[in-house]
Amino acid sequence: MGDKIDLPENILRDYIPDVDKVKWILDNNHNITYFTEDDIKRITNNYSTKLGKGAYGEVYKGVIGDNRFVAVKKFIRVDKLDEFAKEVIVHTQVNHKNVVRLVGCCKDKNAPMIVFEYAANGNLSDLLYCGDTPISLGTRLSIVIQCAEALGCMHSMYNPIVHCDFKLSNILVDENFHEKISDFGISRILSTDNTNLIVNVRGSIGYMDPTFAWEGRLTPKSDVYSFGVVLIELITKTKPTNMEKNVIRRFIQAPQKRKGAKELFDVDIAKESNMKILEGIGKIAKDCIKEDIDKRPEMNDVAARLRELRKTLELGGEKTGWQFFSGGQNDLKKENQHERSNSNSNTVLYRRKSLGIFNWIGATNNFKKNGGHILKDIYNIRIYTNEEILNITQNFSTALSKSSSSDVYLGDIDDNTRVAVKVFTNVSESREEFVLQLIIQSQVQHQNIVKLFGCCLEMEHPISVCEYVPNGALCNYLVVEKGEETGERSLLDMNY
Fold first, then answer.
1. Annotated catalytic residue: which of 38, 39, 132, 165?
2. What's the pLDDT band for 480 if we cut at 50, 70, 90?
3. Binding site for ATP: which residues?
4. pLDDT of 93-140, one tens digit each?
């Protein structure tokens, strides 16, 4: 029998003890770059700009080939290679716009390092406590909704992922003021029953679920507790570690007092018109930090309740995005009805010279119509150009299937990976269903779900690029013999 192929994912799994390996599987993710130690030294200019230091590593600023800033986490203790490998693997499983993006890693056992996207505006704790401008209630509400949705996505996976260290300082803010959950150093992938018993309990004082701390019982509800603490911290502007103010205990006991929780709210947002929203957030927070974990809500339910509060706040006239950020999350239908004249040309990934000016205008209009303003922000969806699609499919030379709604063609991408290129010939005018389908597919990574590589939005009909399945659909194999002599076959009736 031959030697095991020395694939990067095999090397990383070798760092994990055998008893733990079954859970920690690294998908062959084509979006991950494997760097050498020399690469990292060049990227960081020999570790010249330190961004911070934690218990397990130091973080440096760097620049990669396309002039993109990155953050490089250099592990201090090389005897903790299993922790390094687990952090990489967790990141490969999570695909969400509000989770800091994994760019790649250096798998050298003498220099384990992880490369992430760079968040230019630092962490939320510094912005809340040290920022020059107070953060509005609407912005705080928008922040927690994005984080709740990201945690809900992680908890809803086949093998749920628990962050285990959710707190304000682990929420980063990028150059466009999008929130990004970071630091998965002690995160855990749970078994399918959603519960694990952990012997070596780790977490941050003040944020850690007491049930987890005392019993070692780890479930997604452990993150729910931490999220509740963060909610209280955001509306009171008081650290949970401040023993003098003891804000968590006072918040729990507030209903027994005449003034309730009003006296605890941050004075920057505690105006009378905000009281209903603040009390609503407080109620959600108290549900999250209930001692009985079975009585705590699911993160997706928390996100839904927070979105309802946001609607109420917006009806009162307050905006819920960063007040100095002009981007925002725009509704697709409105964008199609009212095309904006000040769209950012930097986000349009075309080769203008090769298209010609008239073709470029058409491609630009199609890009908007097909949902490009939304899909460009989903980091793990690659946006292909017209030219790239024509090269991938050899001018659509090999058709795999055709139907009333789409045509599918065979193609090959850069690393000679076979792909299926699907042209949506019959989509709704608003393109909402197409955009939603791609967003959902981009956020699910599982060996039994067809992988999405990207899309093309410049043509009249939107296009998706997915992994190619050579044996076709299962329905082609669900047949039953009708006559043994003649070998006649018919599709099996599935309507029984």
1. 165
2. very low
3. 74
4. 888 889 999 999 998 888 999 999 999 999 999 999 998 889 999 999
Q: Which of 171, 107, 162, 117 is nearest to 139 (CA)?
A: 171
Specify the pLDDT at position 20: 55
Work out the percent of the chain whose per-residue pLDDT is above 90. Answer: 40
More confident residue, 364 or 288: 288
For domain 332-467, the question of CATH label 3.30.420.40 is answered with: no
Give the distance from CA 349 to its chain's centroid.
22
407 counts as catalytic: no
pLDDT digits (tens, 9 = 90+) for 440-454: 777 666 667 888 888
| CATH number, domain 8-117, options 3.40.30.10, 3.90.1720.10, 3.30.200.20, 1.10.3720.10 | 3.30.200.20
- pLDDT tens-digit series, residues 408-427: 999 988 767 889 999 988 87
Task: Summarize pLDDT for 151-196 with one digit per residue, the tens.
Answer: 999 999 888 999 999 999 999 998 888 899 999 988 988 876 666 7
Decide if 4 contacts 10 (C-beta within 8 A): yes
Buried b / exposed e across 124-136, counting CB within 10 Å, b at 16+? bbebbeeeeeebb
In the chain, CATH 1.10.510.10 covers: 124-315
Q: Name the segment(s) of the chain with CATH classification 3.30.200.20.
A: 8-117, 332-467
**Does 392 score more than 50 pLDDT?**
yes
CATH code of 124-315, in short, is: 1.10.510.10
434 versus 37: the higher-pLDDT residue is 37
Residue pair 234/282 in contact (Cβ under 8 Å)? The answer is no
SS3 for 346-392, per residue?
A: HHCCCCHHHHCHHHHHHHHHHHHHCCHHHHCCCCCCEEECHHHHHHH
| Helix, strand, coil content of the chain in percent (nearest 5) | 35, 15, 45
Q: Could you tell me if 9 and 26 are in contact, meaning their C-beta atoms sit under 8 angstroms apart?
A: yes
